[in-house]
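User: Could you walk me through two proteins back to back? I'd like the raw sequence and the structure tokens for each, with a short line separating them so I can tell where one ends and the next begins.

Assistant: Of course. Protein one, sequence then structure:
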Amino acid sequence: GNLAAGFMAKRMGLPLRRLVAGVNSNDITHRTFTAGEFHRSDHMEKTLSDAINIQVPYNMERIFYYLTGEDEAIVTAWMHEMDRSGRLTLPAPWLKKLQEVFDSRRIDDDAMCAALRRAADEHNYLADPHTAVALSAAWAVYGDEVRPPTEGVAAAGVAAPVVVLATASPCKFEASLTAALGSARWRAYAEGPDFPVAARQVLAAKEHAFAKLAGRGSVEASQAAWEAEVRGWLD
């Protein structure tokens, strides 16, 4: 989603040079960008960055659409092939065009944990595991320091910034942060002033057990009944 939005913004005139995807071991986006292999995996691997455990990213269709100059016929044929076989291999000219804009890195759990520790130790920034994947990818592509640009603002002698899009609050990912930083550092964060007040209130709220929701005739009626029950607790 971030990549698709960034690609749209670039086409609208935002001066972006490259769009880099950081992915975990569920790496279909990485395989697409590096080899043109938009191939569904046979299984999904469990990772510490589970919100990006993705087998088929639906926003890739949007990227293909703008990559081809909004050619509906080409994209429709590609997606039909993906639906039919689970495997779309981009023709070489389209892969080359894709790689003019996009890059990627595959970040496993060890590398993610290392990036999370580095962000905390060197920059006093506590990232969630998915943002740590992005940080690791940025450091892998651009190195430790921002490099001078090769075009655009180079003549003005201005360094090119690298922007990493953060995903979520680290307060949601106790298990992943504990794996990366240890239980003592998680506890210090959870009990300290940087832990979001709203999250602390949720954790302190009374838990309610309820039986499996029985059908109420239609899906809509069942959803309405469940929502009413939960809203009653919140009120």
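----
Protein two, same layout:
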Amino acid sequence: GKSLTTISFVVSILSNPIFASIKDPNQSLVVKTEVSGIAASFSPTVSSQDSTVEKNLIHTVLIVAPKNTLQNWVQEFKKWTPIDLLQFTNVRTMDNVTTASVDRLKKLQAWHSGGGVMIVSYEMLRNMTYLDDIQQSTVTPRKASPTSTIPTVTAKKTSSLDEIAEFRKYLINPGPDLVVADEAHVIKDRKSKINKVLNQLR
């Protein structure tokens, strides 16, 4: 079916060494590397440091689907992905509305730095990233980094906007390298919030 075709394509893109050799000329990744040996002896309080590495052209894949199909997608990936290729897909989901925002941010950071597949519902994506025109002018986007500090979440409106701005760093700009929209008729209304969100992907 359509899920098998999609999964085969995604697995091929993420695992094929030919595709992996194609690097993104516009983005790089910041990763933590362990400091050991002579370097560590000069600075015993430092156990890791940031380093910049080239990013594959297709590093992150976002699958947006109706909420009731998310676990089906997870199971389909487990069913159709060869065991030795599971490390490349590294499937993650974000479907629990009760999950703390700080935990969602940690999961997004891990996905952004480690790559692979993130599966999220249309509703969750909309709730995490939608800002109207006025709100967008009140928040200042910052460059996404897997080591950036996650802000403490409060009930204040300003903090809520800052929280959305953090989510948007990993989901909107820069957005994922590949987006799959399941049941895409959900986004056909150009005036809907989810349509506006997906049109903002960069």
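The CA atoms of residues 13 and 19 lie 6 Å apart.

Let me know if you want the two compared in more detail.
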